[in-house]
Design a protein that fits this description.
Helix 6 (116-134) packs antiparallel against helix 7, helix 13 runs parallel beside helix 20 and helix 23 (662-675) crosses helix 24. The protein has a domain at 230-385 and 394-476. The radius of gyration is 39 Å and the shape is elongated. The chain has helices spanning 10-14, 41-53, 57-69, 75-86, 96-106, 116-134, 144-159, 162-171, 178-183, 185-197, 201-204, 229-250, 253-292, 304-323, 331-337, 339-353, 363-379, 394-417, 421-448, 450-479, 485-507, 646-660, 662-675, 679-708, and strands at 26-27, 516-523, 529-531, 538-539, 541-549, 554-562, 567-576, 581-593, 598-601, 614-624, 627-633, 731-732. It has 24 helices and twelve strands. Strands 8, 9, 10, 11 and 12 form a five-stranded mixed sheet that branches. Strands 2-5-6-7 form a four-stranded antiparallel sheet. By secondary structure, it is an alpha+beta fold.
Length: 734
Amino acid sequence: MDAAQAPPGANSIGGNASGVLQNSGIVIGDVKLYASDSEDPDELFETGLHRLHGNMPRKAALSFSAAYDRGMRESRLWFYWALAILSGRSDMDLDAESYAELSACLSAVEAASTDPFDRATIVVKGLFELSMRIRETEMEALTEEDRKAIMVVLELLRKLSDDRKSEITRHLDRVIDGTIMDLSMQMLREQLQERRSEHARADRAPRFFLPDPMTPRPREMPNWTAPGAWGVIVGGAALALLAGAILYFGADTTAQVLTAAGAIAALALIVRCAPAMMLRRERVKLRARHYQGSATDMLWVRWPQVMAFRDRFAQVLEYAFREQAPPGRAPEDWLAETGQARLTLSCRTAERYGDQDDMETLYWLAYHYADQFADASASGLLHHKDAGVSPVSPMAKTGLVGAGALLALATAGAAALSEGWGAVAAVIGGLTFAPAIALLGYHGLRIGLRRRFDEERRRWAKELFTAELAQYDHWREWLRNRPSDMEMSDWLDADLTWLRMQAMNELRLTHHDVLAHFAITEPDPFARAARVPDGPIRYSKYRLRTFLLTHNGVRIYSADLDFNDGSHLNPSMDNFRYDMIISAELVKSGVRYGRTGAALVDRNQIQPNMTADVALAHEMKLALHGRFIRIVIENQRYQNFAPQTPAEEKALLDLAMETSGAVEGLRILQSIAGEGRDWIVTERARHRRFIDRELFTRNAAINRIDRATPAIESHEPAALPAPRRTSELPIAED
């Protein structure tokens, strides 16, 4: 079995968005990449790096700040800390604390340094300062000096390693001024094309949404039994005694001896030849019960929990068999043909796994059965129950025929040698011996071969279990190449940037025409969901929205994203003027969990009588004149991710808001709602006053240091503030 080939059903499960399969969300692994209780600065730095690559820049900045507070002073810290501060932001979004930290990071390197991270930090500094300088300047008003400075910085960017170049263009997406972005468009397009498909995305992405398969359990086959065999044997013995009495009292000695000898010889032949045929019949019967179903396997399923498990697994089996129907067979016909067998498989699976709550870890087994039955149909095993079972030797059938012939000859000979009533007694005795021998031989062998039958059952169960183990090992080996959470984040970020470029291309806008932009992700209602410990929830399907804020209003370009291959489907465009925006807020919604997933419901309908199967999710609600735009910010919709405490709810909301892009989007939309169409002028004026104040404060501090110390030997930044806490998010009651 090729480990690189996807196991049966893997891609169907990983990309399933039908709502048929249970979809409670899965947690992958137990390694905490995004959390650390360590005091070691190197470990704190690594945690921050993971957070940054996982699209959690605000949390990454906290980790880098903690590493700095514990004594770390390295070039890589300045670079990644600066990226974390600027990621997902424009220069107008920086508060005083972030600006102070950024200034310290950018001033910590020397222009003449050859360290790779220092060179990358110099590029970040150049891009940031150029963007601030020309943000207020129209394209046509750029001086020749500005144009040369832009080209110098872009040339430095091109000379960086591919990793540093990719990190800068990814995280400084909203910082880089439109003019600079337009001049570097070709380079960005080439990088995006590569980032969206690199690391075999189409093959590996579905694996992220698949749980580790549950270890298969062997089935305990019940011991073989022969109900009623002893009664039949007693009846056969009675017939034999009757035949003997008839011969004893009615036939002469020669007839008695001849008939008895024939009966004993026939019984001996049956005992010698019948076992092979009976064992083969048992093998055929075992296969028929597996591929055609057996009502006896359903009789024991009575406990409510086990019955519920059986019914849930039966639904999964039906979905898997429909997906894996043999070529040329209509799914409905295939389901009708295998209905009894699927019910039997559901009962047998409930027998082994009925104590488990996580059905998703057994999806692999359902698809294994579906693939097994499809192969059996192709090979003929499904319709010819003796296919694949070795035939018995022709001598066995000949021996059974010989046993009957021998008894008949002995009876005929005894009758021929007798006269009158003796001949009649010989015939009646021989005819009575025939069923007695058949009953004694067959049912006596059933009891005598009981151990052999048990061995056949165990051998068949082992054969089925070996096939399950092989499929289980295939799944485990295939899932070893599951993408990391950082790779998932990078693919999604590249998809969002690519969508924005597609929107601008259709609208014929340049980056200089766009005053600001941001993107918000919304999961598909039935998307598969997975996360690593302490990480954000990733989805197999998204609804992407990129907001382009131009001089005249807001353009929203939306598309459905199939994350497994990065394809964009169903694009649409929405437009409205700035004065159409009334408000933007974060509101709560209800979630009702079901057998196949969860559904959002109106929160007003579930309070105050909130039941146990109802929790809360959050939506971003944009109120326009005459309509609403609601974007779900998922953090509690999947049952396995539902928080247990208010602190967990707060942490999940912060994480969902940051990774979905809703934090910056909500701030900008609220600013527009408050300022109207002049929001960008007001924002720029406010930002200019902020920068002037920070520069004045910084220069005053430097002058005080210069007067106190004539020469500064260290090129380190001044002490920075302690780690910051994330701001509270106002949540409205909808």
